[in-house]
Amino acid sequence: MILYDTPRSGNVWKVRLLAGFLGLPLRRRTLSIDRGDLRDPAFLQKVPFAQVPALDLEDGRVLPESAAILHFLARDTAWWPAHPFAQAQVLSWMSFEQERHMPPLAQLRLRLALHRDTDPGEPRILSLAAQARHALTLLEGQLAAAGSTGWLATADHPSIADLALYPYTRFAPMGGIALGAYPATTAWLDRIRQRLGYQPLFPGRPEMDLATSETACPA
Amino acid sequence: MILYDTPRSGNVWKVRLLAGFLGLPLRRRTLSIDRGDLRDPAFLQKVPFAQVPALDLEDGRVLPESAAILHFLARDTAWWPAHPFAQAQVLSWMSFEQERHMPPLAQLRLRLALHRDTDPGEPRILSLAAQARHALTLLEGQLAAAGSTGWLATADHPSIADLALYPYTRFAPMGGIALGAYPATTAWLDRIRQRLGYQPLFPGRPEMDLATSETACPA
Question: What confidence category does residue A217 fall into, taking pLDDT thresholds of 50, 70 and 90?
Answer without folding.
Answer: very low
